[in-house]
Amino acid sequence: GNFWSDYNGYDLGRDGVGDVPYHPVKLFNYVVNRTPEAMVLLRSLFVSLLNFSEKVSPSLTPANVADNAPFMQKLNFSKDKPAY
């Protein structure tokens, strides 16, 4: 896993790992990557609705672009002690 500053999940087990997968790539970015012409829709209502739909149902985002074990806090690396 990684720490994501905009992750809005939760950690019911209190193990430091989020219980909800994080999707670092928005579905619209995926669409633009496959169809560059879609970029003209960037600030449109369509994209706002797409982003909202993605938050409500994360299953819309391709599964291969997900962090299934996101960290809830930043890891602090030090020479003297391990990160976790």
Overall 3D form: elongated
Number of strands: 0
Q: Report the helical percentage.
A: 10-25%
Any idea what the radius of gyration is? 16 Å
Average predicted confidence as pLDDT: 83
Decide which structural class fits the backbone: mainly alpha
Q: From N to C, what is the helix and strand string?
A: HH
Contiguous runs where pLDDT drops below 50 for at least 5 residues: none
Q: How would you sum up the major sheet?
A: none
Q: What is the CA-CA span between the terminal residues? A: 12 Å
Percentage of residues in strands:
under 5%
Number of helices: 2
Description of the structure:
With 84 residues, this protein is an all-alpha fold. It has a domain at 27-60. It is built from two helices and no strands. The radius of gyration is 16 Å and the shape is elongated. The model has no long low-confidence stretch (mean pLDDT 83).
Give the arrangement of secondary structure elements:
Elements: H1 27-34, H2 45-56
Summarize the structure.
By secondary structure, the protein is mainly alpha-helical. The protein has helices spanning 27-34, 45-56. It has a domain at 27-60.
Key descriptive features of the protein:
84 residues, mainly alpha, single chain
